[in-house]
Amino acid sequence: MAEWLNYDKTTFTDFGTMGETVPVEEGGIGGDGSTMPVDGGMGASPYAETEPDTDAMSNDPWNNMQETIFNDPELVNGSGQSVRPATGWLVCIEGPTKGVDYRLYSGYTYIGRDAAKNQVAIPDQHISSEPSARILYDVPSRKFFINETNGARNPVYLNGNLFDGRVELKAYDMIKLGNTSLLFVPLCTEKFAWEDKED
Predict the structure, then answer these.
(1) Model's pTM, two decimal places?
(2) Where are the beta strands (DSSP E) in the chain?
C-alpha cells in the first residue's frame, strides 16, 4: 500500500488494462489469492481511454452555444453594450400563441402581426401587420399606458371595453386584439424599478 502514499508516482495506468485480472494479495481485501477484474467488477472504468462521443456532444444543446439561451442577444450581449431590461410582460392567455410571454421595455413597445414592425409580434390574421397598439412604460412615473396607433385595422379592447386615447394599465389588465387576449404583468412599479439598482 506504500505506493498509495506516493501521489507523485501513482497513476491510473498502474492498475492494468481493461479486461485483465490482477491477483489479490494475501492479507488484502479478498486475501485468498483470487483474482478480480481491473474495473473492480463494477462496469467500465471511468479512466478507460476511449474516444469522446462527438455525435452525442453535437446533439447536446448545451454544447451548441449558437442555440442556447445564453447566447440569446436579448439576454447576453458579448459586445459589452448594455442589455435592455424587461419592465413587464404580456402573457397570451387566448389565441394562436397561448402560453407565450412577451417582454415590455422602457419607452414604447408596439403590438401587431409583423415581427419587422412590432416588438410583440403575434401571428393572428385578425391583427394588422402594422402596429395596432403600443404600450408605454414611463420611467419618471413608473406607470404603464396603452393606446391604439394609427395603423390599427381592428379595435383593441381593454378589459372588454373599447377605449380612446391613452389609458393607464394596471396589473392583470386584459388586452384583446383580434382573436388574441394578453394579460398584463408589470415588473417595474412603485415597489421596484431598475433606476433604483443603478450603481
Answers:
(1) 0.58
(2) 21-23, 35-37, 88-94, 101-104, 107-112, 120-121, 133-138, 143-148, 156-158, 161-162, 167-169, 174-177, 180-186
